Amino acid sequence: MPHSPTPEHDHKAGHAHAAHKPRSDHAHNHGHQHDHGHGHGHGHHHDHSASRYLPLALLLTLGFAGVEAVAGWWSGSLALLGDAGHMVTDAFSLGLAAIAARVALRPASARHSYGLRRVEALTALTNSLFMLAIVALLLWHAVLRLLEPREIAGQTVTLVALGGLLINIVVAWLLTRGEGDLNTRAALLHVIGDLLGSVAALASGLVIQFTNWTPIDPLLTMLICGLILFSTLSLLRKVLHTLLEGVPEGLSLPEVGRAMAGVPGVRSVHDLHIWSLDSRRAALSAHIVLSDAQHWPAILEAERHLLHERFGIDHITLQPELPAAEPMVFVPSRSAAATDRR
């Protein structure tokens, strides 16, 4: 029985799985068992992700949220109060993201054979839904403020909003340093929304300070809510695609299947599945119908190399198969048929 080569160690800590015992479809359809051999390649992983800055971002965001809340209440600015509330939710989101980043690093176990990498996507989903609730709340208060305008201390709003803008720029810069996963991108989305909120509050303060036109405060709040809503829905779509195990963006299932079927010695590929383990790693499984079982080790290595180099897929499970045997067909000979006719 041929054995697959042990996968090489690589910097992505990828895994390759190969079934060693080719089988025919005929045997499989009758419930015969087939053996699987697995090889694992483990590499040392250094944390280059932006998630390592989440705790610092949390402290900066939560600290300034208190300042904005007090200033917004004193000045009567909806934009400042909305931005303060947004920063509090940001702090909550960043805290969730920081916890998720830690949990996602836990190794695979007997209960969770893939590890807990999907926690990143679940946290991003929670943050996205939370963000939609905040947008709805801000829009509601903006409408009420348009119907019942209030006096606003423009100078206070301007100074505090400027400070909030600087804090959000620093936090956004931290979260863009390194590789961004869905979890960090969701947290960054909150921070960008907060940054836009600070811009709106700053513009509101300046307009009110120099023109005393208070409707600018809720109007700019509504504009920023629209921008945040667009980004949130885009992220939500990606998160749901990952959780529903859709084919990762940038990969085409037909293209991958045709490329795999083009490897010499392969007759066809079927039961091909590609999905995301997390926002950075894709997994693949497929059944490979071989022309000759003796060539399986070389075919396995060629498929692994193809999937890694061309498509960036390292977590692979391949099941080799022999083509289904042709059934035995009996036909009467010509002489026998002629005798029967007589």
From TrEMBL:
Gene3D superfamilies per the UniProt record, alphabetical: Cation efflux protein transmembrane domain
Matching Pfam families: Cation_efflux, ZT_dimer
Region (Disordered): 1-48
Assigned keywords, A-Z: Ion transport, Membrane, Transmembrane, Transmembrane helix, Transport, Zinc, Zinc transport
Mode of membrane association: Multi-pass membrane protein
Location in or out of the cell: Membrane
Domain Cation efflux protein cytoplasmic intervals: 252-321
Residue stretches making up the Cation efflux protein transmembrane domain: 56-244
Transmembrane segments: 53-74, 86-105, 121-140, 152-175, 187-210, 216-236
SUPFAM superfamilies linked to this entry: Cation efflux protein cytoplasmic domain-like (SSF160240), Cation efflux protein transmembrane domain-like (SSF161111)
GO MF, one annotated term: zinc ion transmembrane transporter activity
GO CC annotations, alphabetized: plasma membrane
Listed name of the protein: Cation transporter
Organism: Thauera terpenica 58Eu
